[in-house]
Amino acid sequence: MSSNASPRMTSSLYPQSDLYSPYEQQEEHEKPLGREHISFENHTSKKHSRALHFYHSISWILGFKARYSLINCFVWGGALVGFCLARSVTMNPKPSLIAAQLVPGEWFWFKQPLYKVNLFIHIYLTTLGGIGAVLQFFPAMRRRAMVLHRLNGYGVLFCLIVGNICGSIIARRSFGGELNVQSGYYTLGIMIVFSGLVGIYNVKKDTRRHRKWMLRMVVYFAVAISARLIMLAARAIITSIGTYYSIFRCDEIIDLLAEQQAIESAFPQCVAPGVNPASIWAAVHASTNEGPLYVASSVRATNGMALWIATLIHIVAVEYYINVTDSANGVRIGYVLEPLDYEENSTTSY
């Protein structure tokens, strides 16, 4: 059975103009981008590549191979150097200048010969040791100037060990010298000195162990930075609460409150007839919104807590970092620790 093919009739329900054409859609999607869009993308990519190239160049100069190493060095090393430089103003032995840089009331104790000598030894040695410690973690120094690395390392160890021993001596009166403050500083001093001694012992015996203990020593040393940041927040909180107090000896209060009338109205027990101010104690409101005495009370109330929390954070942080980077420092090549899969011709892991 055969039939003649008849032309297909166009339905009035589906106009010809509404029919889907994949070729037209393809042509529409393949429409070339404008010059402005292309130039913007090229400009952005060039800026990004320049910044990345600059970052890689600095990493190469300092000897870093992992992409995150320079950032770590800049953030944490920069914080340590910045803190040391900021506190270097206390290296001036002029009493009026150093008293203004300390917590109000601390100079009352630190001007005594025993504390004064140890205070300045602590300030000078830890400032120099903190700045020098950052240089020890530049791989370029170990690869190209090993003698300088060793000399600087021994200098850093001497500064930090001796400086922290002197710091432990003044801890008896530092930030008020309460028991939680003393115990925190004594524990921290033991941790720093012990880490430094173990690091010295392993200088030539076990480079990997030497690196770990040197990292621990420097990270423990930097606890003071985190403690101060925590203390700033804690002081604001207890000031807002308004019900925290610290204990001061009356001769400390008299030293900070110059006006006799203010002492008589706020602390009459300190100026009572026949009273020895060195044997009477008084509670002082902790607040950052009042005078120097009350600011000192807020520091005294929060420093011990801040010190212990910062110590715990730094212990966890350094152990985590050592564990994460252990494989990247698995074998000693020359005087530098390299990854286990180290290739002599490789220069970067980017």
TrEMBL record:
The chain crosses the membrane at residues 68-89, 119-139, 151-171, 183-203, 215-238, 305-322. Keywords: Membrane, Transmembrane, Transmembrane helix. The keyword Zinc does not apply. It comes from the Eukaryota. Coiled coil: none annotated. This is Uncharacterized protein.
